[in-house]
Amino acid sequence: MKFLLVGTNPEHTGAATHFVALAQALAEAGHEVGVVTAADGLIEQQLADTAVQLHRATFRNALDLRGFAAVLRAARQLRPHWLVGNFGKEYWPLIVIGRLLRIPVVLFRHRVPPMKRVSAWLLPRLAHRFFAVSRHARRAYLQRGVPPGLVQVLYNPVNMALCRHDPVQRSAILRSLDIFGDPVVLGYCGRMQRGKGIFTLFDAATAAMAQQPRLHCLWLGDGPDAQALRERAAAHPLGNRHHFPGWVNDIHPYYSAMSMLAFPSIAPETFGRVSVEAQAAGLPVLASDIGGIPETLQPGVTGVLLPPGDVEAWRAAIVAMCDPSRRQPMGVAAEAFVRERFSTGVIAARFVHLLTAASTSKAGSTGIPPHRPRGRWRLPG
């Protein structure tokens, strides 16, 4: 099968990471994959040395004619069976191009905040497939009036090879951070802002450090509250056990340096890719019981769900996870859980199955028939 994925957003976002992983998953599964993306952006950089065919373009907005022309050229060259979009500013261009070339369109929605009213009503009905990246997100779309038959769930794929534990990398990273001996390292990866629960985690981890002399905390990321967090650490007697490498483009090697991961958001998350990646690396996850996060782990088996913002509950959980007899079996189970549920091969197969399976509810609600080879399907009307 042939796919043309369009993603010209140059920024490092969760949607961009999903885009890269999905393109790689489909290519690894033997499908022919083309990608239209921005020059020198994260997507192009990470797909440069793969079997994916790259085409450069940028959509400054939904009416950018140069973006339209670039996608039309790529589509006529590849003759894809499906057009796939991940970013809001490209939803409408793909719908229009799909109609012009008679190629069915797949749209992924990565955010829960509502789209504009007209787009929110029309896009799920005009796209041949409309995917949410979690059940939590799907529920939000249904509550806004999208018919249940129009929204399916497909989780983020994770490349297990990128997340594989590497003891050599672990030693090198710990030495670079001046962490010696046999430490227990609690990791955080993400944006440094209050809604991510960073101050709850700091207070809980610091209190746990008073009980666990081997415990360190590794903070990866940046954001509007990063400086306040560093200042809080600098003012605390145990602050030297908090380590701040800053923003890291590729966090995968750092999973090897961690013993467990914290995902302490106090605001709802659509999903939680970092939780899945950490488990793929054999790390148990301590996570807030909010939004789509619970869908990323097996509570009590691969990690622990905790009340958002509850410092004492988080402190107790961190202390408990410092015990290797609790932590290590969870890490083994975590790696197996991700391999069976979120690995690239599993998600690619699930994606293709959902595309090729007959969808009577979809056809009946939009007038668009099920998929036919080489995009030869009738326009409704």
Brief overview, please?
The chain is α/β, with parallel strands linked by helices. The chain has two domains: 189 residues, Rossmann fold, CATH 3.40.50.2000; 182 residues, Rossmann fold (3-Layer(aba) Sandwich), CATH 3.40.50.2000.
Write up this protein.
Residues 14-160 form the Glycosyltransferase subfamily 4-like N-terminal domain. Residues 371-381 have a biased composition (Basic residues). Its EC number is 2.4.-.-. The chain has 16 helices and 13 strands. The protein folds into two domains: 2-157 and 343-375, Rossmann fold; 160-341, Rossmann fold (3-Layer(aba) Sandwich). The protein has a seven-stranded parallel beta sheet with strand order 3-2-1-4-5-6-7, with helices on both faces. The protein is 42% helix and 16% strand. The longest helix is centred in the last third of the chain and has 18 residues, at 324-341. Helix 9 packs across helix 13 (311-321) and helix 12 packs across helix 14 (324-341). The chain is elongated, with a radius of gyration of 22 Å. The protein is an alpha/beta fold. Helix 12 (273-280) links the parallel strand 11 (260-263) and strand 12 (285-288).
